[in-house]
């Protein structure tokens, strides 16, 4: 990697972290609060993380529940501050230049509650575009373009609450692309999808976001298949630490012929990898819609007027 004399990033790095650490203090009980005693202990879900991710790379972070993946993404997206160490995204320091970082990134999460369920897909995106300071004409054009990109034009004027899980995820991706970010962070993008819809979304990410748009992608996943299929390189992450980094093929090859990613995970963490419950199976209460995406039947998604 090339560096400027001041230690800043120049050239090809999209994300760089150095000894990045986050500790959450344990909540203090009433006696400690009254005596103004500091909290004892805490958790450190990001513990001295060193990373270098190149522009245009699809980089995955694979780890079990509670490994610290979301915390790492939150720091890189400037949603929380690190306790120690430093991180740069697109050359901007996450602490000192957080505004610049935010302008240059998109974040895709599985939290569908962050959309307005009574508004249509188009209205939602136009609202979020206004938060990016788009003029309304410009917002209309950008939103129309993105609805095409994520293949949701056919449902653009239906209320968000009627959308299937797969459609909501595509909306989250469209929202993440509104400001045409150089780096797109995705926190478990296929988490609530059934296998067919998850595969559809992976194909879409590979084809449209990576091949067509050339974005750098930082993706956290709890799914081996997804890591293997999408990532140029991946890190196995556990207990807040990076255990190993490499391409899925190199990581498997390092353990010998016929090794699988689950073997790599076991080798470096000493833990058997367990896929997240529910992510891989057909979700109860869903059926496939006309595009093959899961559609909620009966529950919230079908209730008239309410969210
Ligand atoms: N705001 C917070 N305050 C205290 N502890 C927190 C906070 N946020 C996360 N943690 C703790 O940090 C650890 C890592 O959580 P994190 O959500 O980053 O893991 P993860 O790898 O994304 O897990 P999952 O796959 O289950 O989403 C967990 O033990 C969690 O309880």
UniProtKB/TrEMBL annotation:
Ion transport recorded as keyword: no
Domain ABC transporter: 28-264
Highest rank taxon of the organism: Archaea
UniProt keyword terms in alphabetical order: ATP-binding, Nucleotide-binding, Transport
Signal peptide segment: none
InterPro entries found in the cross-reference section: AAA+_ATPase, ABC_transporter-like_ATP-bd, ABC_transporter-like_CS, ABC_transporter_ATP-binding, P-loop_NTPase
GO molecular function, one term: ATP hydrolysis activity
Protein name: ABC transporter, ATP binding subunit
Record organism: Methanothrix harundinacea (strain 6Ac) (Methanosaeta harundinacea)
Organism placement in taxonomy: Archaea, Methanobacteriati, Methanobacteriota, Stenosarchaea group, Methanomicrobia
């Amino acid at each position: 990697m090339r560096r400027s004399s001041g230690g800043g990033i120049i050239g090809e790095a999209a994300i760089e972290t150095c000894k990045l650490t986050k500790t959450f203090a344990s909540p203090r009980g009433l006696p400690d609060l009254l005596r103004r005693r500091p909290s004892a202990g805490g958790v450190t879900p990001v513990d001295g993380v060193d990373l270098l991710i190149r522009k245009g790379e699809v980089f995955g972070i694979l780890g079990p529940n509670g490994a610290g993946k979301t915390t790492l993404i939150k720091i890189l997206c400037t949603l929380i501050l690190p306790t120690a160490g430093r991180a740069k995204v697109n050359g901007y320091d996450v602490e000192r230049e957080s505004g610049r970082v935010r302008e240059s990134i998109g974040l895709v999460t599985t939290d569908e509650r962050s959309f307005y369920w009574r508004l249509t897909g188009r209205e939602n995106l136009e609202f979020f575009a206004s938060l990016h300071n788009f003029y309304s004409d410009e917002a209309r054009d950008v939103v129309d373009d993105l609805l095409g990109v994520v293949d949701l034009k056919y449902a653009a004027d239906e209320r968000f609450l009627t959308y299937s899980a797969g459609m909501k995820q595509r909306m989250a991706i469209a929202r993440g692309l509104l400001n045409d970010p150089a780096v797109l962070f995705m926190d478990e993008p296929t988490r609530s999808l059934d296998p067919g819809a998850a595969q559809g979304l992976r194909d879409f990410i590979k084809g449209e976001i990576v091949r067509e748009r050339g974005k750098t992608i930082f993706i956290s996943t709890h799914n081996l298949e997804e890591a293997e299929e999408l990532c140029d390189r991946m890190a196995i992450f556990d207990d807040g630490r990076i255990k190993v980094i490499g391409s899925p093929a190199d990581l498997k090859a390092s353990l010998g012929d016929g090794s699988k990613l689950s073997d790599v995970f076991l080798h470096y963490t000493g833990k058997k990898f367990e896929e997240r419950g529910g992510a891989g199976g057909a979700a109860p209460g869903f059926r496939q819609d006309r595009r093959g995406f899961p559609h909620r039947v009966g529950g919230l998604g079908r209730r008239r007027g309410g969210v």
